[in-house]
Amino acid sequence: MAKREVLLDRWRTIEEEEELHANDGDNPVIRRRLHLLKEQWFSDTFEYLISLPREEHIWCGDFDLMGPLLETFYNYYKDDRPDSPLRLLWKRMSGEMRHCIQCVSQHHHAQEMYDKEYETSSIGPLLEVLKSIDEERVTQHLREINDRLKKQEYDHLRDNVDVVSLMYEVLLLLWTGVFVSVLVFT
Question: Which residues span the membrane (predicted)?
């Protein structure tokens, strides 16, 4: 399995190659080679991140790997296999964001970076997918907390971290104007 530093070096090389050949966009050989390099990098990075020990949060410790990897989430709804690397990674990150404000912050910061760095016409579809899966994740978490409250199963010692993280994210998303539909408690 690839190590973090090796993955970062490989990504820098891919970025340098893309810059070097930015004017050669019509060359199918170069385009194909860069596509294969990225594809292999994505695969190796998925494997690395999914294999991290549970106590290491992906967004907290590997923000610099996750930033470029967000690109792959464009295909989230096209990939319906629950055991796919993309779905496994999302499931793990979702669990970590339930308990960790730093993970939530890093996740949304990466999306903001994409929004500022790329043109809306090219990055818009990816950001829409990310917005949608974030809404689903936060809505589900809100429902679970609300259900525990209704059933009087809420344990402030156990659930407090979840609630703090959840409220932080809801307020962050409202402040940035990302969504409002998530606030409907069912």
Answer: 166-185
